[in-house]
Amino acid sequence: MKSTLCLFLVLVTVTLCFFGCSNIPDEPATTETMVQSYVNPYGATAAPPVNIDPTEGGTTIPVQYVETTNNVEFVLSSYYVYKNSVAKITDVQLEDDGFSLNADGFADVEMIAIGSKREGMKIGYTAYDAEGNVVRKNHILASLDGVKEGELCEDRRFEVPRETVKIVFHNYVEA
Known about the structure:
Blueprint: H1 2-20, E1 31-45, E2 65-77, E3 80-82, E4 85-95, E5 103-113, E6 121-128, E7 134-142, E8 152-160, E9 166-171
Parallel strand pairs: 2-9
Antiparallel strand pairs: 1-2, 3-4, 4-5, 5-8, 6-7, 6-9
């Protein structure tokens, strides 16, 4: 009877140790909003000059483009959790070269705590257009090879469709 009781107490102690080692913060995550602008070099086509008649003399008017500025609202959380790893986004930048299908987003991810699996840190994001429709639902991946707690994984790339006006970052959930 004593050995059964001792074995039971050892199992309870080990279980409590595992639960006590959780990396997830006790306080709930808070959110903040920021707006970022980027220039699309080929955002719109310029209207042809009104004083030129393209039908006279076979003259063609080359298409001219005008830069546009796109504003994107970001909803960021104070931390994100994925498989017992915890991270936060410290900076987000947007760029558009005008040639690729989407604009590029770059996020700096700071590792607050790293779980035992070290599978990488995933942070989900959902992009919305002006009507509130989802135009992209994907994730940012930060490789944890050689990364320690408190270190920064810089320039984690993600795609931003050009019609995006709002991006909400959230905990990534496996589909």
